[in-house]
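note to self: dont lose this again. the chain is below, predicted strucutre after it. 255 aa total, dont forget to put it in the shared folder this time
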Amino acid sequence: MVPLKRRTRWLGTSGISAATWLLLAGASHAQTLPGLSLTLSPNTSASGVVSSLQIVILLALLSFAPAILVMMTAFTRVVVVLSFVRSALSTQTTPPNQVIVGLALFLTLFIMTPTFNAVNAQALQPYLSGTIGQSLALTRAELPFKQFMARQTRISDVELFLSYEHQPTPRSLVDLPMTTLIPAFAISELKTAFQIGFMVYIPFLIVDLVVATTLMSMNMMMLPPVLISLPLKILLFVMVNGWYLVVKSILAGFH
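---
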């Protein structure tokens, strides 16, 4: 009887040989194998050089896509609030980070849909159709993002960066530079997220205090309060439909 290791080795060798034979048979039948050829030719015309530079700049801008997602959309507030909910429940890694980030991404997409639609209608589609140039398309694309960020940004945060750069107060939103609006929007979002997180913590903090006081009055100081408070907090969160209330408060903050 053939040993198991020898049989496994023989089956693996046979499988590789069969796959190799099938590839060779297919190649001999078709006489040619598919290939990929890439040729680089110099372009000395002005329009060709400009087009090449535009492609390079566009590829460079794509590397900033994660920063744009975090700093110019609702993602920061959503992911911070969801992290606060997990910390208040004391569930450590439940829900896991992948679930929190995934939910934050889809909520951000839902919240930012009107802004994305405005950018698509005002900038992207006219640029793709050739009716406007690249610089005008970028200028038009900035305005919907500025309008969204300005609604969520505190005036004091904007004045902080304006005073640091010794710039006068802009007359309109169009005159406000993105380098000033983006960091002001980011710290405003963090403050709002921490305010929501504080309100989330209050009911769970009360549960922890009640459980700790009860255990101390019963001289059960050796029993960790988290063993009792954790299922009570999960039960309370489920009974009040906590995820619905948290997401509702997040969405209400952007209207």
